[in-house]
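Same chain as my last thread, 289 residues:
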Amino acid sequence: MFAANGITAESELERLKNSFSNKIDSVLAPLLNKHKNSLENLEKNLANVSEVENALLVREERLRISKTRGSKLIGKVPSSPLKLRDQCQRFNREALSAIRVWEKKYEQTLGSLESRLNKLSRLNDALLVKNESIRFKREVALRDKDHRSGDGSLEEGSKDYALASNGAKAIAQNSPQSLIDGDLEYSGSEGFAWGFCPADFIVSFPETTSVKEINFLLHNEDKSREYLYQLFVLREDDGEWEMIADHAKRPSKGWQRHKFSPVDLKYIKVVGIFNSANKNFHIVEIEAR
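reply #2:
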């Protein structure tokens, strides 16, 4: 049915849907390009060390995302190889964080359109918009359910405040920017921050930020080395460092995950004490959620 102005609610709705779809594509484009490059490099590295099966798994993921667009890019995280899993988790987290504001705006715009159509007594048209709103909310809820962590928190969708793109800054003896660049790809010589033990690795936020989880990835390419460290936080510029994790006598490797009740923080500091492989301490990435 045509309205007095010759425009149907269906055409208004289709324009709105197309506009939203194009916005999501543009928001995800830089993240997707970065993800594609990381996957391509990972596939090459795995092939170079004769891990053919793992290289093929990476290729499958590359093919999947090449045929996908929009929020459907946020797919199921592969269980192996480990670096592929970590890279896909990172992409999912950043993608969800980037599109949430636009999803919220889309919901609000649908609500406004439905309300306007009801006021114009265009009830059938308003019903079309209402059905789209219900469909969209259900789709987002199902997707978020798939990406919830074991304790029910929306781990992949929560914002990582410890990213340079979110205003974070980093201090380390060498390559501090690696701590906050969002890139989990690393080798024996690059892709991580490092310093002679004991070494401080500090991340600061542009303003006091509510954080309930701090994670960081220790260099683990050879799968054998173990580290000792302590984790501190600082609530404000003129405050004192508070230790929230003491692994000074607890050998650790790979991802280190620390969850706690939400607290307002300004700084995070990892003190690297020991590395079983050499006298340096290495961190690939620090996350704060």
